[in-house]
Design brief:
With 220 residues, this protein is α+β, with helices and mostly antiparallel strands. It contains ten helices and six strands; from the N terminus they run αααααααβββαβαβαβ. The strands form two sheets. Strands 3, 4, 5 and 6 form a four-stranded antiparallel β-sheet that branches. A two-stranded antiparallel ribbon has the order 1-2. A hairpin with a 2-residue loop joins strand 1 and strand 2. Helix 3 crosses helix 5.
Length: 220
């Protein structure tokens, strides 16, 4: 399930909301009669409860995103309500519950991994990469200093250019990511992301001072 963990949270959030909307439309198409609607609601809560329980078990917390239990409950209800043969209904129910319980488990793990403050969140990962880039620039400063602009024998304050970083074997793609609640966070457990490009800045002066004052700053 590494492919799931690689999905961009904003995309995953909108996709889960869209899935709920589509399945809700199917629900109203299938359960047009009052009797059918009653069974549909019963099947929905059975599916919802089992997928929710699987998600809670996977994350060891009751604060799990509701999107996957809702999708699982709607899908289970739509299929169970539409299939008339009892044996096929049982088989379909077991398969759907197993499928969405597994999906709920991995969705919950995905949201926990991307939650702000987590070790695997985009904030933490990009901060780690940015600090790694800054540390590499300080370590390779002897290779960088010859490319920095100088005036009167001293290094001028300014940005270390991407070309200079690349020549020193440093990836210049440094970013800062902020995660904020989106309108669907209460449902999906996912947060919207705002990305800001960073650059490596030096206050200049002597080579020792220029190296010492290397820092990360938002790059215009």
């Amino acid at each position: 399930m590494d492919w799931l963990k690689g999905i961009e949270p904003n995309v995953a959030g909108y996709a889960s909301v869209a899935a709920i909307a589509v399945l809700a439309l199917i629900m109203f198409r299938v359960a047009r009669r009052i009797v059918q609607l009653g069974y549909f609601v019963l099947y929905f809560f059975i599916g919802f409860g089992i997928v929710y329980a699987a998600s809670v078990y996977a994350t060891r917390t009751i604060q799990v995103p509701l999107s996957m239990p809702i999708i699982g409950g709607l899908a289970f209800a739509a299929v169970a309500n539409a299939i008339r043969a009892r044996l096929m209904r049982i088989v379909s129910a077991v398969m759907l519950i197993a499928l969405f319980s597994l999906a709920g488990k991995f969705w919950s793990e995905y949201t926990v991994a991307h939650k702000p403050g987590g070790d695997k969140s985009a904030v933490a990962e990009n901060q780690r990469l940015a600090m790694q880039g800054l540390s590499a620039a300080k370590g390779e400063f002897d290779a960088i200093v010859s490319s920095l602009p100088k005036k009167d024998g001293k290094i001028e304050p300014g940005w270390v250019s991407p070309e200079t970083l690349r020549k020193a074997g440093i990836d210049p793609s440094l970013q800062k990511v902020d995660e904020k609640p989106a309108w669907h966070t209460w449902l999906t457990g996912l947060y919207s992301q705002e990305t800001e490009d960073l650059g490596i800045w030096t206050d200049g002066g002597s080579p020792e001072h220029a190296k010492k004052t290397l820092k990360l700053k938002p790059h215009p």
